[in-house]
Amino acid sequence: MYQVKYEKGLTIKALVTGANKGIGFEIARHLGKRGYDILVGARDEARGQAAAEKLVAEGISATFIKIDLNELDSLHTAANMIDSLDIVVNNAGIPDRVKPRRASLDMTKNTFDYTTEDLRATMETNFLGTHALTRNLLSSLTDAAKIVNITIPISPTDFWHPLAYITSKAALNVMTLTFAYEFEKMGSHRQIFGIMPGAVATDLNGMQAGAHSGFVKSFESAGQMSTDIILSDKNQNGQMIQYDGKIATDYEVQLRIKQH
């Protein structure tokens, strides 16, 4: 198993957004257990503080930092509070525009029912907010820092094709590939890559682990799997890594249309 390598007295630090629950919390917990000081990024202060305190109770160095991807001006302020980062995990995101008395992700919503406001709200959080945060953090990254974007494949399937969410993640994936190109062109040791954890049971989708014949995994196992990928000794710059460790080598959009 990968172990953090650092000199005595050297602090190694990771920021995880959306770390107050689910996959984000589990990634933060596993990184913390492997020696990282954790910045628990969350937009809700009470929940973020509670998550940080839970990590501290497990012997992990953790501090809450307010990260609200909808407030772009605040992201610059938050970034200025961070002097050095070794890992950034962009995990926070929304599946669709929040509506009263409806699940965060309506798995039955028809593609044609998505409004412009649905698309705008999701894109502003999942892509524009994440891009703004990452860009503001560039000056704080160590020479061999890793930027990790939690993402999804974007080809529609019978089971999974929420238009707003897929669209926002497609933009995030393009950002991953283009940032990686710039890092490589500069001769930088920094890396940026995407992790596709697959179907995960979270409160956003109302699914249960083990559903669909075991296809849906728990956020605990997804968090541990993601952390193992993050801490790999391999150069993963520009890669899209699936939950099984395989690299997506043909990422260009491929629409699979059934022939009748």
From TrEMBL:
Q: Which Pfam families match?
A: adh_short
GO molecular function annotations of the record: oxidoreductase activity
Keyword field contains Nucleotidyltransferase: no
Asked if the record carries the keyword NADP, the reply is yes
**Keywords annotated in UniProt:** NADP, Oxidoreductase
Q: SUPFAM superfamilies this protein is in?
A: NAD(P)-binding Rossmann-fold domains
Question: What is the top-level taxon of the source organism?
Answer: Bacteria
The entry assigns this protein to a family as follows: Belongs to the short-chain dehydrogenases/reductases (SDR) family.
Instruction: Spell out the protein name for this chain.
Output: Carbonyl reductase
> Taxonomically, what lineage is the organism?
Bacteria, Bacillati, Bacillota, Bacilli, Bacillales
